């Protein structure tokens, strides 16, 4: 006991006046004072008993004050992960929930309870098409079924920063989650959402068919701005320093390395991204045909039916070194001249939710068409081969490890797919979303139906949403 | 696995969703417009909002035309736009409306019909449409060579849209001609000109400028560096990092449920090679 005391700061308790004075050294021996409170745990030490004592009232006060203190530190919302359970130093201290008197009263007056079973439809709801708004409906379905977003909003973590909450898209998002989890079976009418998006993303405003990917990016952008109370996009937001929930979940870092062919100097930049747009075979841009298992490994367990392009193929193409020809020389800071170079993209930092955008449009000068090439995508995806760190180890001559089953950092699970049917000019969007562990549902505006995993994996795929399987502390 | 579960709809009924509700029963849903506080049918909220907020390419047209035609005797042109909502009620008269979606072509030709539509002067009231009773046979014939002409049960007026107006079928057009001009009347060939379907240059400029991203020149995730980067891959590209100019977004548009067997579908003329949002600026 004597060994411990010197390391703690004590606040000396004058029981008569209930005033405190701080002592950072050894607590003076009696009779100067009778008790002290240690500032870290709030325990009370009695000098007479020479021991810590327990006092119920003091415990209550300590608990309450502690809760208040932690709340003050919780200004920046942190990612709520399954594993967050102890003090991390920032954010909210985990505390068990205890009902207040009012809550107990409410519970007593409302005895009906909702039980979540596996065939429960809670969290599923249709969306009315407001007039060519199926592109918006699909993105709403994907977002409301993003587990971390759902956790964030349902645990009421959004604190509105906007001048008026009625113009806050994040508040509207919060309301959307309430609507989806309300248990209502009639489809929701997202008219307020449309109004808000049109007023904050003017380029999207207008009654016409639009692109779902474009809507996703615009919506994330407005949400990200509104998290900081930025109403009109004027505040200079350095996306690298933002810590809003949108950035925590969706923002990744894309590394671009340009290597000079002469001096081999590498110029590296890292840009933030919310999605990865992938070229497809069948477009006029040259696609690199990859024979199945050409590098001797089966990546992501995808069945390589010969001729079928996989998502992994597209990612491999995306991250391959590209030789920029003689007509595209880059000024090398090492050589101080324009030199030929190679460029390579890799993932520096993966977002918690990775959105892959298959570029299903042909964009050559004369030809405008939709590319309907089937691309097979997996339920589980390992992004390790495409990481900047993997590239570094390859370059350092380290043996390319086969996918390490113990390394869970880069493993992703599919949870939403947005599909388009039709042509470039006109069509219809539907989506598949995952609920509970392995149940999939098809969302076609107001109509929600059960879908099989096969339905999902056989679909054409336009936007693919993957969620990191294992979350860690920063 | 942790056992098995039963679902309510293990034998999925094709017309029923996961809640056991029949499809397409939500036609009468309404909502209150946050801008004007009127009660609007949910499935028509988007077009309403576009006009209500004065957005979209058609709203300024309406306003400009109003100003331009305020001195013009022919007022029905501008009124036509405003009365689209009313005309749309004609859908319910014997038309094959599917689902909660919209008429098949959201890109109404209404904004462009004035380019090639010749209006017979005089003889009709200031509200939309033509009252066929006031026209003589020659005038009727003339009107019916350039306009749809289908008589609205609702207003008893003739539709003044183009011969390929999506609101009425060829069948309807044929029968109105037979009715008004006699059994020998035939439907004039739909015009070969493609103006109705495409954009004019000024429209596409407007769209392109609308597609430019607002926002700072600092790269933000909405610039989608990946999509910019991949777009620049190819043989003849200059370094991609230099171009800060934001490209128009290449996209797949979608909005309405696909109408599988619509009588109203006509062969689409080939899209004109106007500068469009799908072109690569560089």
Descriptive overview:
The complex is a heterodimer of chains A (474) and B (282). In chain A, helix 3 (134-144) crosses helix 7. Chain A is globular, with a radius of gyration of 28 Å. In chain A, the strands form 6 sheets. In chain A, strands 9, 15, 19, 20, 21, 22, 23 and 24 form an 8-stranded mixed β-sheet that branches. In chain A, strands 2-1-3-4-5 form a 5-stranded antiparallel β-sheet, with no helix packed on it. Chain A has helices at 56-73, 101-109, 134-144, 147-154, 169-180, 191-200, 212-227, 245-250, 311-318, 388-395, 453-458, and strands spanning 10-14, 19-23, 35-38, 44-46, 51-53, 210-211, 252-260, 266-273, 276-278, 309-310, 322-324, 330-332, 337-339, 341-349, 353-358, 361-363, 368-370, 375-376, 380-382, 411-422, 427-435, 439-444, 447-451, 463-468. The model of chain A is unreliable at 1-9, 15-25, 75-91 and 290-299 (pLDDT under 50). Chain A is of the alpha+beta class and 474 residues long. In chain A, a hairpin with a 4-residue loop joins strand 12 (330-332) and strand 13 (337-339). Chain B starts with 29 loop residues before the first strand and ends in a 28-residue tail after the last strand. Mean pLDDT of chain B is 56; it is low at 1-11, 73-128, 190-218, 227-249 and 258-282. In chain B, strand 1 and strand 2 (39-41) form a beta hairpin. Chain B has 9 helices and 3 strands. Chain B is mostly helical. Chain B has a two-stranded antiparallel sheet with strand order 1-2. Chains A and B meet through helix 6, strand 6, helix 7, strand 7 and strand 8 of A and helix 1, helix 9 and strand 3 of B.
